[in-house]
Write a structure and sequence with these properties.
Keywords: Acyltransferase, Amino-acid biosynthesis, Cytoplasm, Methionine biosynthesis, Transferase. Belongs to the AB hydrolase superfamily. MetX family. The chain has about 350 residues and is of the alpha/beta class. The strands form two sheets. Strands 1-4-6-5-7-8-9-10 form an eight-stranded mixed sheet, with helices on both faces. The protein has a two-stranded antiparallel sheet with strand order 2-3. The chain is globular, with a radius of gyration of 20 Å. α3 links the parallel β7 and β8.
């Protein structure tokens, strides 16, 4: 059983850059029931344009008869600040002006996204998270949370993510923002502003999410005579239009900047020292042919998080494999969690 909720934080929400948002809202969904001991919480952090319905966008890993089953677990997925899906975002009404924020919305970081979810967890009375899991932007949130509240996260699962966003990743995001900014309507103060630019940005993003092999498998022409109207061209257009029907350019713009901000070493001794403070039982999973978050980034995480377990998988879908290869992920994560329980039992016996 699932339910959708809206948490209203009545106080001023202070961002990492010192700016403030008044009375933020966080939209979230829950699946299953919190048990009496409140130790069955699975918290999923979503990626760039996803919503709070994790049973929909992570099918095969979350859902009835899946590894994370709402019959057994209390599953929470909350949309981040800036998201198009219900949380306070650039299309929200600015209480000071009575008009939508648009480009007057303050910039925010991954840590700000985590802070919002920490407030939600506090509101729900959740003191312990059994499993915190996220991929891509969601993994960036999960790693930050595990550093910020090292005693709260029992098991941490990081998929296709990094400790800091790379120059390569930032360059891809900037290219997408350049595409959005060429659309004059982006500056027109209207909800559908920048959609033509967003369509182009999505086309750029897809090239970083997928692989040469994936396009050859799905978009290769069956005839040799074409000189125009290629399947790959139609696919890029279709995917761009599909996003424009469900998302807005302003949220995309700001969330891409938040991704760029990700660096667990900021304001701390170093990136490595920050990772060393993680106390969670940690699993890191990388995708061998991930073009956007290369395997070396997950190897770095696993090397410097104490006791972390590392697995790599191969997927023709590249970065998007973290959403698609759910059978492989179920096997790896399921075994990891079983071992985690066994370690806990052994530890209890030793202290008894």
């Amino acid at each position: 059983m699932s339910s959708t909720h809206l948490y209203n934080y009545p106080k001023q929400f202070k961002l990492e850059n010192g700016k403030k948002l008044r009375g933020i809202e966080i939209s979230y969904q829950t699946f299953g029931k919190l048990n009496a001991s409140k130790d069955n919480v699975i918290w999923a952090c979503h990626a760039l344009t996803a919503n709070a319905d994790v049973l929909d966008w992570w099918k095969g890993l979350f859902g009835e008869k899946n590894l994370f089953n709402p019959e057994e677990h209390f599953i929470i997925c909350a949309t981040v600040i800036g998201s198009h899906y219900g949380s306070t975002n650039p299309l929200s009404i600015n209480p000071v002006t009575g008009n939508p924020y648009y480009l007057s919305f303050p910039e925010f970081t991954i840590r700000d996204l985590v802070h919002g979810h920490q407030l939600l967890a506090e509101h729900l009375g959740i003191q312990k998270i059994r499993v915190l899991i996220g991929g891509s932007l969601g993994g960036q949130q999960a790693s930050e949370w595990a550093i910020m509240e090292s005693n709260k996260i029992e098991n941490l699962i990081l998929v296709a993510t990094n400790a800091y966003h790379s120059p390569w990743g930032i360059a891809f995001n900037e290219s997408q923002r350049l595409a959005i900014s060429t659309d004059r309507s982006f500056y027109a103060q209207q909800p559908d502003g920048g959609l033509k630019g967003l369509k182009a940005a999505r086309s750029i993003a897809l090239l970083s999410y997928r692989t040469y092999e994936a396009y050859n498998a799905t978009q290769l022409e069956s005839v040799n005579e074409k000189t125009d109207g290629f399947r790959a061209s139609s696919y890029q257009n279709y995917q761009g239009e599909k996003l424009c029907k469900r998302y807005n350019a302003y949220s995309y713009w700001y969330l891409s900047k938040a991704m760029d901000s990700h660096n667990v070493g900021r304001g701390r001794k170093s990136v490595i020292d920050a990772l060393k403070t993680i106390k969670s039982n940690t699993l890191v999973i990388g995708i061998e042919n991930d073009f956007l978050f290369p395997l070396v980034e997950q190897e770095f995480l696993a090397k410097h998080i104490p006791g972390a377990e590392f697995h790599s998988i191969n997927s023709a879908y590249g970065h998007d494999g973290f959403l698609i290869e759910t059978d492989i992920l179920t096997n790896i994560i399921g075994n990891f969690l079983k071992e985690s329980v066994n370690k806990k039992i052994i530890k209890l016996h030793k202290t008894a």
